[in-house]
């Protein structure tokens, strides 16, 4: 746990945080112009983050009144080149009214420390190319753009069709 300004605390997510985490996920989707894209539920988050075999993890910034102010949701990656794991940051979100309190920096610093403590070689994430405030924020922290790499995704009917080719 890390104490932050104004009485907030950065800590690993725990059971009971799911509604606050989901609210941050929805707020991020709204900001990223995809308000109808969130299918996640409190029950799904409970299973994913706190079930018998968690596959994703989260840090939260918890306000003194008990509300989730910010989240970082992450999971492990593996680099065949380095032979070590890394962390993929899936979502970083700070509620607008709490920005400029250092929560984003604190969450990224916690993830960087997690990498170092576990011997991981990378902390990676994507950012929308139109999100100039985030790009500038990440650049100021020393994050480099991977200009030579392009993310690819297969979903929906294309995912079903691809799977059928392998069956």
UniProtKB/TrEMBL annotation:
Keyword Acyltransferase carried by entry: yes
Task: Determine if Transit peptide is one of this entry's keywords.
Answer: no
Q: Which Gene3D superfamilies does the UniProt entry name for this protein?
A: 3.40.630.30
Keywords in alphabetical order, please.
Answer: Acyltransferase, Transferase
The family database entries (PROSITE patterns) matched by this protein are listed as: GNAT
Q: Which GO terms describe its molecular function?
A: N-acetyltransferase activity
N-acetyltransferase domain segment(s):
8-165
Which residues are in coiled coils? none
The record, for InterPro entries, names: Acyl_CoA_acyltransferase, Diverse_Substrate_AcTransf, GNAT_dom
Q: Which family does it belong to?
A: Belongs to the acetyltransferase family.
Q: Name it.
A: N-acetyltransferase
């Amino acid at each position: 746990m890390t104490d932050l300004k104004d009485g907030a605390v950065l800590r690993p997510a725990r059971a009971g945080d799911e509604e606050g985490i989901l609210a941050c996920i929805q707020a991020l989707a709204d900001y990223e112009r995809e308000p109808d894209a969130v299918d996640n539920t409190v029950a799904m988050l409970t299973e994913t983050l706190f079930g018998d075999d968690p596959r994703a993890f989260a840090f939260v910034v918890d306000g003194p009144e008990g509300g989730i102010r910010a989240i970082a949701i992450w999971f492990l990656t593996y680099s065949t080149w380095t032979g070590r794991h890394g962390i993929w940051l899936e979502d970083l979100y700070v509620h607008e009214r709490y920005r400029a309190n250092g929560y984003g920096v604190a969450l990224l610093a916690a993830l960087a420390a997690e990498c170092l403590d576990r011997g991981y070689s990378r902390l990676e994430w994507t950012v929308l190319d139109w999100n100039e405030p985030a790009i500038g924020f990440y650049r100021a922290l020393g994050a480099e753009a991977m200009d030579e790499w392009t993310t690819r995704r297969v979903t929906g009917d294309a995912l079903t069709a691809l799977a059928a080719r392998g069956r």
